[in-house]
Amino acid sequence: MSAARDYELPEDYEWPRPPAGGWLADDLDTLPNLPPHTELIDGSLVFMSPQTRFHSRTLLLLETALWDQAPEHLEAIREMTVKLDDRNRPEPDVLVVPVDADSGPRQTCFRAEDVVLAVEVVSDESRDRDREAKPRKYAAAGVPHFWRVEENEGLPVVYVYELDPAIKAYVPTGIHHRTLKLDVPYPIGIDLTAIDRRRGPR
């Protein structure tokens, strides 16, 4: 396997050719041999680059904290797609959803109305989508809480947004360095420096 990518395509692989008007959200479940973590944005397939160490560690930190601190009716899960509409099925890095949104072990996505919080950890290749396109789409679909996570000197910085339902747009409510402490969507406290706790204090 090539060291440059974490998914090896078959030698005879042919890239999917979109139908007129683009792909639909349900096509992600039936198209053969898609690379892991393929998203659908405006009817186009988006393929993910390999994760960086920062990205992977940040996902683990946030998912674990959100899961551990969630009330009994909510749970955190990572890297599951959300069907926003027929032409958009993005994959947030971390989600908070109701426990009863679980439809079984073969479930591949959540409905937009089930998502309480969507978290995107920004990477070089996803910067424009994570900062602009995806927040707009989450807000339009009614997702009440959104976090954008950026890297600064090796540590996560969390930009927190809350939906203004009157205008279907996000309003920024805070920028969190080193420590994240919130009351919504439920009481949450996260030591953001713990991303590297095995390396000692910064």
TrEMBL record:
It holds the Pfam family Uma2. The keyword Hydrolase applies. One of its GO terms (molecular function) is endonuclease activity. Keywords: Endonuclease, Hydrolase, Nuclease. CDD domains: DUF820-like (cd06260). PANTHER family: SLL1072 PROTEIN (PTHR35400:SF3), SLR1083 PROTEIN (PTHR35400). This is Uma2 family endonuclease. It comes from Streptomyces cremeus.
